[in-house]
């Protein structure tokens, strides 16, 4: 599915991997995850919350699984992480009581519970309202810089993501077809990138999915 | 020619069916092996397993105890009716106790356990999978088999023999209520004949072996169906149904096999 992938990601940067749905972004993310072997050092954000655990217990989960901490210290750590995403006051709520944006922030707090070196975001912006969106963008940047971590964001929300990343890899059909800083991508002459960034319905990616001749499909008599 | 083609197609379908069932059985066996090998967490952090014992065992108590009581009472009624024709109504205690300890206790408790706890285990694991909570765990480098499946498996395996024992005990009490208190069989004969006739090795231990085997079978099927369920609403509902059907049949089939083995093994010649 993927061909000729060669990525170099600078430590401490926020990097975007962009491209159409189905171009292999998530596969690439999985490969990165597999290569690193999740050992608490990496975290992929926005996994589903555990629906039968409170917000507090959700954030405490990775700490309880991977570290034997006294309750006092555990409590401090969890509140610290929740404070970082602005949801310390929601610690007692259950996931069903949260809005979509809040649930993501909790998932974010849970992912950084073990202070990862590398944070992987898989479609972090899908289905968020503008305010939650702005909050997540801010958090990605803040958490990356305060943890001294490296972040990789896989997304197809180009305009929004271009505002937060330092560098972009653009993918199509399993290859990286363009890369550069957000400015370089915005002004790219590559027709696919141009279509994608500007959200045009016609371009190298046609509006119509490949199909047999329209007339033949409707079984019209040949004109 | 058409008949041959149709026949060939049927045979083909049968073959495909058999292969897929055998494949699934193999997959389930490997799952069990993996599960047992990764039970360290469930046993080391035994609190996780205790929570599941509460869930599968303690919460099943009501249905088990009430059913046991009624089964014992019916046994006494039916048994008395037959025994008194031969003037052997004092043997009522023996009849009730042996029926319960050898057969009805493990089997009926197993069936109830499958529908009460087995279905719940499948639905819970299936739903956790469908809502991606299991993959969220994997992302945190936590093995969902070790953290979610193994505690439920051991919780069920530990609960089942205890439930079967309680079922038999309340059943015997129910038999006593009807036989002695209601019908008026002599209490001394009821208990002393039971004491004399029920053998620890041949009856009680064999009954316990059965309930352990049923516990393993039912919980294994339940956790496997849940873990293997397609992550959709229909997938989880089908898996839950399959758990109840498959594990009920497994209990009955295993009961036959075990009974046959225990009887041919001698010991009941007297």
Describe this structure in words.
The complex is a heterodimer of chains A (223) and B (270). In chain A, 40% of the residues lie in helices and 15% in strands. In chain A, strand 5 and strand 6 form a beta hairpin. In chain A, helix 2 packs across helix 3 and helix 4 runs parallel beside helix 5. Chain B has 270 residues and is mainly alpha-helical. Chain B contains ten helices and no strands. Chains A and B meet through helix 2 and helix 4 of A and helix 6 of B.
Give the secondary structure arrangement, pairings included.
The complex is a heterodimer of chains A (223) and B (270).
Chain A: E1 14-19, H1 25-36, E2 42-45, H2 55-66, H3 71-84, H4 100-111, E3 118-122, H5 130-147, E4 150-155, H6 158-162, E5 167-172, E6 175-180, H7 182-186, H8 191-198, H9 214-217
Helix pairs in contact in A: 2-3, 2-4, 3-4, 4-5
Chain B: H1 2-37, H2 40-44, H3 46-56, H4 61-83, H5 92-130, H6 133-139, H7 144-183, H8 187-197, H9 200-228, H10 233-264
Characteristic key phrases:
heterodimer; A: 9 helices; 15% strand; elongated; B: 270 residues; mainly alpha; 86% helix
Q: What's this, in brief?
A:
The complex is a heterodimer of chains A (223) and B (270). By secondary structure, chain A is an alpha/beta fold.
Structural class of chain A: alpha/beta
Number of strands of chain A: 6
Overall, the morphology of chain B is globular
User: Based on CA inertia axes, which overall geometry of chain A fits?
Assistant: elongated
The average pLDDT value of chain A, as a whole number, equals 82
Q: Major β-sheet of chain B, in short?
A: none
Percentage of residues assigned to helices of chain A: 40-55%
Radius of gyration of chain A: 21 Å
